[in-house]
């Protein structure tokens, strides 16, 4: 019989979650003479905790004993053989011969997945780094369902450290699956990670809408960003400008919503790599003001605990504070889960989580972009495995780490047998899929890495010039003039470029406007491949200059080429995470006219309808030394023959 692990909440189908809740209903009174009280007789559960725990470990141990089984425990794995340097793979192998089920908590994202692969018995994730905490989610959903009767249609506000809180990550996926509206109220700099938002969008068709709500501000101090996920998907993608209509829509939506629960979380101090910019005061807290607010009279308050100071003891005495009940349900819910996992019916596996898997070949050194991923620290217990996601923006191959779920983008792909590499382009999708199927794909972070492994660049097809230096200069001038004409308030203008080339174009536009108006303009930059593969706002190069605040500003977003529209969507979403600009207008040098999302640029240098397999490249002298400004189009494979071999042999200019 195939063993069944619970590493992610995605390992359980909705039906199985319901089934576990039914079992929990039968166990909730903890009756010692009920039939289930002997259902795990003779079974041993081992709890392996590499991080502190009160509730999770003790409620699991209590649950096992109430099912007639017993528990062996290592509450501080740092004092185990791990301290002598034992790999997590060896620990998992060994302990699985002592017990029938392992419950593991670890500080690395993905560590429990790695251990599950080496254990012969079911493994349960009791929290892995910032990644997931699926059994907490079972308790949370069970509590919410018990309180509210039904999950579908509820609105839950998730507050606090949404970036590092693993309970939040498992919970939002589950809430999405059960049709709950999620409003997120993050502390500044602690918004949901981009990989979680992407997963919500791609797998659960949830589309976050950034919203600053004055209404909630009345009860929770200084919220930075609120997302609403109404049943209208992909709304953000429809707007490149925050127009009146959207503003109206949002403000109507917020007061109309009935909030059913607030899920409060503590700041995960132990996971902060660098100090967060914002002071303590901006952390969302629930206290007296919340209790007095009429709109929240039916909103229950939940917390995975432990709390620090984000949840006032005043809520303890109020009927809406249900967090101790939530902790108490930990026992029946974990009893139900254990009997489910150790029962035959659990052997039918739910849908596969990962579809097209890429394994880095021997010698490939490209690692997961998440610094806390288990693959970074335990190469002997893991291998480089990624799911290849459908192509998003035009020039990157999107991968998802098999262990920690982080998504990241690579720009260079190679063919193992022929030892050639080239920049990825969505036009190459079919070819790269073929390489993947045949085990010939390799990905690189840098050209240096490819060349050190003995790879040489592919030859590309002939290039056509689409714009020369003078045309490019004229286009930038034209765009700047139109921006100038349409700017209502010069003081509020700020020009934001998407790195690399969009940022240089943004500076050129700013210079043109400065010439026109004889004054300085602020610019900012967005890095799409920031730390952990996430888009981020870059601080000004000159540390003496303050970063422009985008709130209530007229923003011009600049990129070199618009293709699918996804990059622009991601940049917009980043802007709205931190501010509510008065308007955002989009300027691009080239519009390729092959949009996947309905994003329409306001200023276009040139429309160049081009085929998907073609690469349009803007060359700017700031980036390409010794070259003049120009725009070229070329095909990386021979246009007449999509066979990859002809790509190998076509023979003009090398792409770098
Ligand atoms: N107990 C939960 C966890 O282990 C929540 C927390 O620690 O804040 O993730």
Structural description of this entry:
- This protein has 656 residues and is an alpha/beta fold.
- The protein folds into four domains: 9-129 and 331-347, Rossmann fold (3-Layer(aba) Sandwich); 135-328, 3-Layer(aba) Sandwich (Rossmann fold); 357-457, no CATH class; 464-635, Rossmann fold, CATH 3.40.50.2020.
- The protein contains 19 helices and 27 strands.
- Helix 1 crosses helix 12 (330-341), helix 3 crosses helix 4 (111-118) and helix 6 (166-177) runs parallel beside helix 7.
- The chain is globular.
- The chain binds aspartic acid.
- Aspartic acid (ASP) binds next to helix 6.
Q: What's the Cα radius of gyration?
A: 27 Å
Q: Could you say what the CATH topology of the largest domain is called?
A: Rossmann fold
Main beta sheet, described? 6 strands, mixed
- Helix count equals 19
The first-level CATH class of the largest domain is given as Alpha Beta
* Name of the CATH architecture of the largest domain: 3-Layer(aba) Sandwich
CATH homology superfamily name of the largest domain? Aspartate/ornithine carbamoyltransferase
Compute the separation of the termini in Å: 52 Å
Report the uncertain regions: 221-225, 230-251, 638-656
Bound molecules: aspartic acid
Number of separate strands: 27
Major sheet strand order: 7-8-6-5-9-10
Envelope shape: globular
Provide the helix percentage: 25-40%
